[in-house]
Design brief:
Layout: H1 12-20, E1 28-33, E2 36-42, H2 46-61, E3 71-78, H3 82-98, E4 103-114, E5 119-128, E6 142-143, E7 149-151, E8 157-163
Antiparallel strand pairs: 1-2, 2-8, 3-5, 4-5, 6-8, 7-8
Helix pairs in contact: 2-3
């Protein structure tokens, strides 16, 4: 299912927020998976594919177009290879949403991927999630390693199954 196909039944206020900002560039889609959902994201670079995967995860939880870029949050993660780096990157962003901050980004930008030491630095612009302001999608419970893939043959793309 294309990212644009999710219907959140936006209120007039939510539509007004969306109209204040340029449309988000969505290079991701949702693939059916038994009891879960598979995120498929791509980009011109591996950094962009990781960014789009994070936004696909948040896009499943709410319409990220209704999020205003009023706060900034930085996320760093590390792993022992690229797959574990992707896992920990998404897990750290999910933690920012699930923990005290309840941060939902409008945009995530990967500042640097260190492929030698498997570290990543990223920044997100957004705000605290509020049911009064943001439409409720589906809760993401966890990131999984199941069928996780990073392909860099042509343009980089990633596949991640999230537990919903």
């Amino acid at each position: 299912m294309a990212a644009e196909d999710r219907d959140y039944n936006l209120t007039q206020e939510q539509k007004a927020v969306k109209d204040k900002y340029p449309p988000l560039c969505k290079k991701y889609e949702y693939l059916d998976h038994t009891a879960d959902v598979q995120l498929h994201a791509w980009g011109d670079t591996l950094e962009e594919a990781f960014e789009q995967c994070a936004m696909a995860m948040f896009g499943y939880m709410t319409d990220t177009g209704t999020v205003e870029p009023v706060d900034t949050v930085e996320v760093e993660a590390e792993g022992h290879d690229l797959l574990s780096l992707l896992f920990h990157f998404l897990d750290e962003w999910l933690y920012k949403f699930s923990a005290d901050e309840f941060f939902i980004p409008r945009e995530v930008k990967v500042l640097h991927i260190d492929r030698r030491h498997f570290k990543i630095r990223s920044i997100g612009w957004g705000e605290e999630f509020s049911l009064e302001k943001h439409p409720q999608g589906t809760e993401v419970k966890a990131i999984t390693y199941s069928a996780m893939q990073i392909c860099e043959d042509e343009k980089p793309e990633v596949f991640v199954i999230i537990d919903i």
